[in-house]
Structure formats: structure tokens, C-alpha cells
Design brief:
By secondary structure, the chain is mostly beta strands. It has no helices and 45 strands.
Length: 295
Amino acid sequence: NSYAHIGGIAGSAQGTSDSHITITDCTNGAAITGTENYHAGIVGHANYVDISGCTNTAAISGSSYLGGIVGSNNGYNGSMVISNCTNSGNVTGTSNYVGGIAGESWYSTITGCTNSGKIEAASSAIGGICGYVHNYYHNIINCKNTGNVKGTGIYSYYVGGIAGWSESESNYTRCSNEGTVESLSYYVGGIVGWATGTNVIDECSNKGAVKSTTASTSQSYGVGGIVGYLYNKSTIRNSYNTGAISSSCTYKTAPSTSNYNYGVGGIAGASNGIGTSSYNYIENCYNIGTVYGSS
């Protein structure tokens, strides 16, 4: 069974839209170790569960959907709330969807949460707060990451200090990252690695180094102080970066010796819309961090 729900407090918690389960002021200090999916310090898999004031201090390891607080959480129309939770344990995945607070989050609000643990995974969607933010009605507010976030595999893309992969109608407000964000691949950002479809990043800051070192493909693309890749009607405003941003591509394709390193920026590494009605916006932002690229 690849869905072994393991949690320090509850392996699985299943509420309903009319009757949420509440988990409050719980602490886990025991290591959560597995080889499969949905492992976390508090709840492995949660539907309609509100979690507040909870703490994890232990290491979490497994394959996918791993979080310091919850592996995967789901609540319709932003109705599920994770608030004032703290993770200091390292979270390590052999695959994807790995985060300091949540590995994966649907239709939820994450507010006032902090992570100081080291977050690492071998595949994609890796974040200091949340690895994969699913589309619609999602808010991450007043969250802070100080732990290092790293994609350890040669195809570890979507890596961010707050969120790795962020889909439509997700909002990030007053969030900050101070940890180093690093990948061996592309789409790497101090706040969000990949932001697509009316994401709004407002009053956010990055002080950590953001870097990509690519040796497996012929390009390094989308490395930014706030967002690695900004896509399709998304906005960054009132935000700043002071961290060093760097990208290098050392791969050489035979018989050619050419390689490509493009899309490296102090605020956004790359920005792309779909047609004239889908522009992105960057407003009232500044960068004082160094920006470096080499190939």
C-alpha cells in the first residue's frame, strides 16, 4: 500500500464540510519514518481538519506528501485552517510534495506558521511552508521559513522558500524566507518556485540565497528572489529581495558544447503570460541582492 498514512498524533483524520475536526496545542517529538506517502508530525492525511498551535520537533522521512505538521490537507473553498503551528524537524522525501508545514494543501488557509527544519526532496514541489499548493481559494499569510530548502535530484524543479508549486488563485501575504533555497534543476524562488494563474504575492521578502546548479539538462531556467517563474495573470507587489541569486548550467550536449542559462532575476527569474489578456504584474518591488548567471 503506497498510501500509508502516518502521523505523530493521527495517521488520518476525516471530517466533513459541515463538521470539521479540530486538533489544538499538540506536540510530536518522535521521529516519523516510512518509505511511502502521507507522513507528518501531527496528521498524515487530513480532510476538513483545523489544526492550531501544534508543534513538531522530530525528523520526518518517506516518499511523497510529507510535512512537518500535515502530509496532505483538503478543505473546500478555503475553509480549512492551519494556524500558529511550528516545525523544527527535518523533512526528507525520496519523491515529491514535501513541505515544512504541509506537503500538499488544497483550498486552505495557512497562517502564522513557521518552519526552521531542513526540507529536502529528490523530485519536485518542495517548500519551506508547503510543497504543493493546489488551485483555488488558498491563502498563506504571515508565515516564515528559516530552514534550508533543497531539491536533491537532477530533476528537482518547483522549489521555494515558502511554496514550491503554486496553482491558480493562491495568495501569499506578509511571508518571509531566510533559508537557502537550492535546486539541481529549475523554477527556484525565494518565496515561490512556480506561481501560475492569478497568484498574488504581496508584502513578502526573501533574505536567503537562491541558487540553481544544473548539470543534467541543457538549460537552467527561472531562478528568482521572490518567484522563480511567474505565469499567467500573476502579480508580485510590495515585496523585496536581499539574498544572493545565482544560476549555473554546466551540462554540455555532444557533439555541441553549448548550454543555456536564462531567466535569473532579483524579483522574478522569468515571467510569461498567455495572450494579451494574461499579463503578469510586478509592482513596487526592489532588489539589492546580487544576481549572477553562468554557463
